[in-house]
Amino acid sequence: MTPEERSDTQPPLPFLNEPPDDAVVSPEALEPESQARWHRWVGNGLGLGLFTWALLTAIGLVQYSAATPSSGAGWLLRLWVVALRKALGLGSFAVVMLLAWAGLGLLLWAAGQHPRIHWDRVLAWELALASWLAWLGLRGGLDLERVAQGYDGGVIGWGLARLVTAVMPREVGLVVLPFFIAVFAAWGMGWLPAWLARGREWARALSATPRAPTPTASAQPTDVAPAPEASSSHTGSKQTSSATSTASRRETVPQVRKTRLRIQYAPASASSKRARGRAARKRGKDLPPLTLLKPEARGRTDQAQIQRMAAILEKTLAEFDIPARVVGVQVGPTVVQFALEPGYIEKPGPDGEMQRQKVRVAQIVRLQRDLALALAAERLRIQAPVPGRPYIGIEVRNPKARLVRLRPLLESEAFARVNSPLALALGRQVSGEPLVADLAAMPHLLIAGATGSGKSVFLRSMVINLVMNNTPDRLRLILLDPKRVELSRFAGLPHILGQVETDPERILVALQWAVAEMQRRYTLFEKARVRDLAGYNRKAEEPLPYIVIMVDELADLMMQAPESTETALIRLAQLARATGIHLMIATQRPSTDVITGLIKANFPARLAFAVASSVDSRVILDTPGAEHLLGRGDMLFRPPDAPAPIRAQGVWVDEEEIQRVMTWWQQHASAEGEPRAAAAPWEALLRAKEEGPRWDPLLEQAARLVIETGRAHTTLLQRRLRIGYPRAARLMEQLEEVGVVGPPKNGSRERDVLWDPEVPFQVPK
């Protein structure tokens, strides 16, 4: 596409920081819980008041008598009814419906549901009411005496009828106005726009020119040589053939699409509204309300730009002699997936006859960089083919991206179908469908991605996901945060066992305690003759809670204590599933020295954010693809039973939502009289470790190593003895204490070896 064509066809760049046109933001989601509760009371009161007033108005209108208009109820209601009948006549009953509709809207608003108001439909109903009042005035013969008695269309209907008679005869108006009433009513119900859209699609389908399924001669492979000719004419024939091929190629390039694509969005809102109602009914008073979380803003998609991108894809492939057709589009929160159907090419067979051959998928995959260049895409990913679909998926960034909030996912039917205390709302797929998984079925999750790709943000969202649906009696969390960034903010949450651990030594002891707790639970299961946690809790008087262990940075632990960390994690990953202990581990170094073969083998469920290279993607997912992700929550999730990774946009929970949920749980715990968080259950292991023998068991081996090599520094002990840095540093301090090495030199980790090699070393008593 030339620059002139690009400037003529493409719209100005969209500003992603502007709010969507139809964003629906709940006032409750932006205020504290106390103010939200006050607004619910006000909404319920006003809604019931409007319903009551609508009922009284309907009774007054039914009992209205032109002879005695003052008969009936109280003076205020009488004045209201008389004014309505004088102004609108029989159209006064529309006011009753309006009051009832407003009351229903306030009740829904107080219940946490915020239906969108379609102002075009409101205008349509107003026009329908005006047409009806005019028709009533015409039917009454424009009789002012009847109007004064409150009949026909009232004063307003009489005035509208006079306007109609000024344009057309009364008899014609009586016939034409019902047609307008029907049209405006269909518009107000939403039927007319749907009918018009369907008619436009039918008209386009009838007027569209069918596309030729096979390309022209330019699509023939270049490796087929022409028949041999005289050498004098060889050059000229070659130039002619090249010119013909170029001209033919220009003719086959699609400049614009002749049919519009079928663009798929997220599911309709009707089912989600029913799911929200069921979710609100299922949640008990011992769980935080979903109104603590913010709703999801819905942005509009630039359909014209998507049509242009589809035409560019087809045109670029045609320029490389690859016929293909974009048959559909799926619009997700941050990614647009084009469904590309390969075409056919004609090749001469052995007998000289032309044969049709399907375009190979590999031919399209090889053009990934060319397609990204044509679309001016930052990252482009090709899924070839899409599992279970007869097309290739080409995924690029959505020009109008939006955040994926946790609240609509918790209200979705997909989340309700999981029906598990450890259900995780991971995000939204490319199609807009919620991506939900059960941690109990995984049974552990391994997360990896480059710095800033969204791992830590995803972990904190999963913490909120779990505590929104489980009480502390049902779920306990062990948060291990060597990075000291994301998980430390959850200190004080009643679900946490002990405290958020950040020290590597304490983290290792916490993992060892988890192994001991797993063994203790298996002993209890054996005595109760059950096989898993669910069976034990059905029999036991004191049920055991689920335990979810979250580690924010595995690389830090593997660097300081690789053997201890790997042993504990593998032990838990192999055996802890039945005991209700599950792991969620994240790392920003998806390399083989961090994610070892044993760790990968015991973590079948894996989640990859954006990584630097295809090598890192293969380490975490066993397949490339994560290197083409966009970052900022864009991820590939591979369940244990899935043939290929699923692309999705991770869920986002901001600081305000986290603070609301934590405040609710802290207030709820204090109101219930629950005691403050007890000390960590692994404190006893820490004390036993500190009260152990004075000298490290490896002291003698470390002393011999230092004396034999004549070198003394911590890295040597780590490498030769295969221990972590904390233990190696303690060994170096003990070697200094017994006189084997001297103090550290200024500006260097090297120490002088003071022990005579001729004198054997013995550990002091």
CATH evolutionary superfamily of the domain at 439-684: P-loop containing nucleotide triphosphate hydrolases
Rg (C-alpha, Å): 36 Å
Instruction: Output mean pLDDT.
Output: 79
CATH topology of the domain at 439-684: Rossmann fold
Query: Main β-sheet, in a few words?
Result: 9 strands, mixed
Tell me the helix content: 40-55%
As a percent range, the share of strand residues is 5-15%
Spatial separation of the terminal alpha carbons: 84 Å
What multimeric state do the chains show?
Answer: single chain
Query: Could you say what the CATH architecture of the domain at 439-684 is?
Result: 3-Layer(aba) Sandwich
Counted beta strands:
18
Brief description of this entry?
The protein has 28 helices and 18 strands.
